[in-house]
Amino acid sequence: MTFTHLLVLLLVGALAGLIGERLVSRGMPGGLIGAIVAGLVGAWLMVDVLHIVLAPELSLGGIPVLSAILGAAIVVLLFSLVAGGKAFGRSWRRY
User: Fold this and answer.
1) What is the pLDDT along the chain (95 residues), one digit of tens a residue?
2) Local structure of 88: helix, strand or coil
3) Does 45 reside within a domain?
4) What total number of domains does the chain contain?
5) pTM of this structure
6) Which domain holds residue 76?
7) Fewer C-beta within 10 Å: the chain N or C terminus?
8) In Å, how far are 1, 42, 68, 86, 87 from 81, measured between CA atoms?
9) What is the DSSP string of 17-62?
10) Residue 49 covered by a domain
């Protein structure tokens, strides 16, 4: 793995994680690092574990972006349900 490939993976993970957080109106603890982890774990779950690839032609660094976003949204939602709603992370809702 080259340094450039690692940077692309982190960028795709951050993008997927941040969009996933916005989709479910919840946040991961750790800010950007939590979003990157959610994006990478979500992409791994969708592509490698569940074998669900949405629009494979839209991929960066070998990661299908739409699958990563959907997987990240699922990871953020599950984490917020397990953690007890607003116990961790930020909420994107305006009050």
Assistant:
1) 688 878 888 888 888 888 888 888 877 887 888 888 888 888 888 888 888 888 888 888 777 888 888 888 888 888 878 876 554 555 555 44
2) coil
3) yes
4) 1
5) 0.75
6) 3-83
7) C
8) 35, 16, 20, 9, 10
9) HHHHHHHHT---TTTHHHHHHHHHHHHHIIIIIS---S-TTSEETT
10) yes
